[in-house]
């Protein structure tokens, strides 16, 4: 026993010494770069740190500010969005090096650095090790680099064509109809709206990318054969497997399979079930092909399946599974959470909601959604109040609050802004995690002026009062909410809005930009326009009258600042109760904020 204790102490002491030595070396390296740096006791992606944050953070939060303020805000992924631009303001620099034992991390909120980082695609690459958390079912396009990434992108992007977007459009309109019925008809239970939105976006991605219909209960519907007898539904298996992705990543496979703990069991069962549902999808495709059915416009599953039977270079089975998984993941949680944020924000800002409704009515007059077309109506929507609401929500509540990259074994040059505002090319040391802090870029006050007037009681980062869709109006430029609401300018095209390149990157940019950008914009436009054409959304209040409403608004604003964090994408972790009611013809919500 004595020997065990002594050996353990010796191992801990050696590790501590080794960590101190490494930290010392890293500080020397950081100094040489000339970038402003701060020291953190632990690297943001350290597995032990990731696994123990639930325990350690409440303790660290009790320490005085001077002990943690310089490093903690840039060391916890879940808090990146909430801190936004604050760490950069604190360090008075748009780029910061965070120095910890064994590893460096470079954080930037500078559009110049973001642009340059995206351009240098062979020097500054995806951190595949960190992203391997996504490879639950097999290798994925998202967590790969080099030749492998190029191959996966080539196979998967081909089907993201006009035909697919037409399908996304019609499918989203059809699903929005069901959504309206379910939102208006059912009781206001906590988490209900979020779940309904998740089901809709899951069903759209499932139908469009894989040709699989989903029942309103979340079950898989196949034409060619019966799916396996699942212990949980198609939808639940995905939702649970995705939610437990972190546990799957941190737990060795053998433990996950045999552990008596509930969290391990849930993760394991949902992973197994989702894998079986994916096999059902592939089997369905195999049978279709056997019957000689080759679609004119292939969907994503067609592309993956065809690649798997390519005689020259067949795509491995695991890569089909991995990529199905990552497209569902990319395709549903991002859109559903964006819609969730939008509906809460519209309920908090009735004046914006009524303008949006009036704009949709004016645009479509009496035309029914079933006659709306992707080729004509979608571009018009995207450049209307609908597009402005979506663009602004992705700015303030961008669902991926950071974009991670890394330098490889060689140091890589990167263009940075100095605190004085000059630009300088700096050599970033090898193996440095390089992070475009989207939530800070999108809140950099130099490019995105904030509202002067705040909702009473709203805490930092004031994300609700900064939300100003009309800043995207033609004549208003990047003005404050008050200015924009006063002006009634025409809408400018959102693709040529004149923001500084690199200052608005919700879908990233360049060779590794989001593959589903057009998919998401199409779906968001269709669902938002359909729902707002039919419904008004309000905050649920405790009683009648203005005071109750102001109270509900303040509570919602607090939650939208303090309870927002990341599991798979940025999401509201608590609930803001919402009520959807059918609009009478031509009647907009009472537009008083
Ligand atoms: C509001 C909706 C969405 C947002 C804000 C969004 C944002 C992003 C961002 C920022 C990236 C780059 C991530 C990185 O480099 O680490 C990305 C990548 C990706 N997105 Fe999206 N996305 C959305 C919807 C979708 C949809 C609907 C799909 C598919 C149907 C999709 C599929 C992908 C894929 C496959 C990648 C990986 C691309 C690669 O690594 O080369 N996304 N997305």
Automatic annotation (TrEMBL):
<protein>
    <submittedName>
        <fullName>Cytochrome P450</fullName>
    </submittedName>
</protein>
<dbReference type="GO" id="GO:0004497">
    <property type="term" value="F:monooxygenase activity"/>
</dbReference>
<keyword id="KW-0479">Metal-binding</keyword>
<keyword id="KW-0560">Oxidoreductase</keyword>
<keyword id="KW-0408">Iron</keyword>
<dbReference type="InterPro" id="IPR017972">
    <property type="entry name" value="Cyt_P450_CS"/>
</dbReference>
<dbReference type="GO" id="GO:0020037">
    <property type="term" value="F:heme binding"/>
</dbReference>
<keyword id="KW-0503">Monooxygenase</keyword>
<dbReference type="InterPro" id="IPR002401">
    <property type="entry name" value="Cyt_P450_E_grp-I"/>
</dbReference>
<dbReference type="InterPro" id="IPR036396">
    <property type="entry name" value="Cyt_P450_sf"/>
</dbReference>
<comment type="similarity">
    <text>Belongs to the cytochrome P450 family.</text>
</comment>
<dbReference type="Pfam" id="PF00067">
    <property type="entry name" value="p450"/>
</dbReference>
<dbReference type="InterPro" id="IPR050121">
    <property type="entry name" value="Cytochrome_P450_monoxygenase"/>
</dbReference>
<dbReference type="InterPro" id="IPR001128">
    <property type="entry name" value="Cyt_P450"/>
</dbReference>
<dbReference type="GO" id="GO:0016705">
    <property type="term" value="F:oxidoreductase activity, acting on paired donors, with incorporation or reduction of molecular oxygen"/>
</dbReference>
<dbReference type="GO" id="GO:0005506">
    <property type="term" value="F:iron ion binding"/>
</dbReference>
<feature type="binding site" description="axial binding residue">
    <location>
        <position position="514"/>
    </location>
    <ligand>
        <name>heme</name>
    </ligand>
</feature>
<keyword id="KW-0349">Heme</keyword>
């Amino acid at each position: 026993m004595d020997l065990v204790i002594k050996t353990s102490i010796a191992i801990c002491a050696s590790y501590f010494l080794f960590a101190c030595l490494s930290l010392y070396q890293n500080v020397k390296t950081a100094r040489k770069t000339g970038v402003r740096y701060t020291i953190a006791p632990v690297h943001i992606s350290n597995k032990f740190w990731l696994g123990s944050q639930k325990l350690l953070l409440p303790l660290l939060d009790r320490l005085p500010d001077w002990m943690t303020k310089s490093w903690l805000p840039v060391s916890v992924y879940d808090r990146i969005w909430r801190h936004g631009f604050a760490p950069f303001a604190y360090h008075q620099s748009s780029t910061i090096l965070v120095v910890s034992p064994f590893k460096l991390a470079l954080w930037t909120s500078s559009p110049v650095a973001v642009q340059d980082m995206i351009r240098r695609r062979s020097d500054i690459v995806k951190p595949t090790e960190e992203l391997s958390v996504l490879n639950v079912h097999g290798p994925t396009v998202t967590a790969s680099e080099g030749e492998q990434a190029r191959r996966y992108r080539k196979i998967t992007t081909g089907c993201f064509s006009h035909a697919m977007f037409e399908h996304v459009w019609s499918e989203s309109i059809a699903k929005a109809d069901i959504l309206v019925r379910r939102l208006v008809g059912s009781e206001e239970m906590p988490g209900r709206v979020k779940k309904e939105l998740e089901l809709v976006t899951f069903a759209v991605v499932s139908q469009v990318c894989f040709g699989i219909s989903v029942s309103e209960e979340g079950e898989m519907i196949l034409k060619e054969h019966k799916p396996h007898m699942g212990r949980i539904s198609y939808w639940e298996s995905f939702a649970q497997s995705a939610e437990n992705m972190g546990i799957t990543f941190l737990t060795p496979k053998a433990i996950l399979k045999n552990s008596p703990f509930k969290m391990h069991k849930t993760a394991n069962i949902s992973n197994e079930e989702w894998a079986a549902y994916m096999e059902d999808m592939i089997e369905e495709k195999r049978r279709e092909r056997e019957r000689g059915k080759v679609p004119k416009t292939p969907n994503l599953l067609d592309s993956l399946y065809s690649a798997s039977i390519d005689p020259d270079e067949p795509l491995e089975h695991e890569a089909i599974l991995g990529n199905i998984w990552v497209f569902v993941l990319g395709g549903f949680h991002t859109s559903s959470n964006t819609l969730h944020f939008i509906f809460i924000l519209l309920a908090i800002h009735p004046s914006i909601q009524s303008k949006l409704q009036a704009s949709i009515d004016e645009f479509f007059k009496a035309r029914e959604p079933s006659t709306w077309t992707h080729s004509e109506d979608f571009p018009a929507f995207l450049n209307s109040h609908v597009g402005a609401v979506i663009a602004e929500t992705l700015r303030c509540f961008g669902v991926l609050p950071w974009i991670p990259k890394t330098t490889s074994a060689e140091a890589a040059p990167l263009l940075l802004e100095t605190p004085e505002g000059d630009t300088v090319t700096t050599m970033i040391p090898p193996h440095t995690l390089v992070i475009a802090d989207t939530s800070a870029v999108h809140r950099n006050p130099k490019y995105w002026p904030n509202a002067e007037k705040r909702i009473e009681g709203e805490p930092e980062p004031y994300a609700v009062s900064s939300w100003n869709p009309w800043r995207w109006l033609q004549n208003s430029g990047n003005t404050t909410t008050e200015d924009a609401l006063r002006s009634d300018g025409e809408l400018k095209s959102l693709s040529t809005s004149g923001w500084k390149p690199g200052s608005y990157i919700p879908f990233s940019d360049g060779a590794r930009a989001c593959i589903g950008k057009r998919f998401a914009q199409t779906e968001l436009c269709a669902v938002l326009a359909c729902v707002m054409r039919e419904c008004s959304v309000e905050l649920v209040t405790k009683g009648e009258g203005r005071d109750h409403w102001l109270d509900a608004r303040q509570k919602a604003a607090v939650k939208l600042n303090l309870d927002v964090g990341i599991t798979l994408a940025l999401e509201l972790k608590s609930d803001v109760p919402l009520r959807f009611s059918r609009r009478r013809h031509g009647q907009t919500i009472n537009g008083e904020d």
